[in-house]
Amino acid sequence: MPVRNIISIAFERWDEKIKNLFINEFVKAYNRTNNTDYHITSESLKDEQDFDFTLENSNGNLLKMQHTFAGADADEYIHPKLANLFVNKLRESTKDVNNISIHIGFKKVLEKKKEALLLAVDVEKIVRKIIKDNGIIKPTEMTTPLFRYRRTDDSSPEVSNNIENYLNSLEVYSNKYQGVSFGYGLVISAMTSEDRADRAICSKENHYSNPEDLILIIHYNEPFYDHFLPFIKEDYSNSRFGGIWIYDAWGDRFILTK
CB under 8 Å to 183, separation ≥6 — which residues? Predict the structure, then answer.
């Protein structure tokens, strides 16, 4: 899907061809999940009200849809050069390791080369301890949590002062891929997937006086892990929106959460 590489361009600024491709993929997922027959009409993209598009079924019932990106601010990103340095250092030092994914949520911005290198050393120590405790990590079809640190969680495992100082979260998973993978690519986001969902949903709920007749699609260009979906289903089951869907751009899939 061409929208895969769109980072933060508002839906109304997309090319109409891209909009239609995106909507058609959503319609397939929605109808398959709900056993309905909604479709795009000539009125779907008319911007006459405060939502992004509509769908209609064979009975003439309308669905009002609002697209939004998972909440993020421009200043939440760690400097790309230091992100590269951190990732490359960790990748080089763990090149003998397979079937591991590492997800990091930064507490504050890395500003010095020394900070990035020392942090990579501390994260590697955790990976090595996981392997020592569990043996060789075997490939798994589903990502399986092996280690989970959250700064706000009283039950979090002990970590170094360096990790406490710079990280809000550190999660290590097993997967089916060779080597060590990093879910955030070249730019490291300081916001967790949960923070992004909260910011996106709350800002849109506050924008509408009556969101009950709207379905919200939250567009994620950042990867998230398996614990995220149960979280959002539980925490936002009482959302005022008529429905909430996630578009996972990395997996090119639409996921119903409410």
Answer: 101, 102, 103, 222, 223, 224, 225
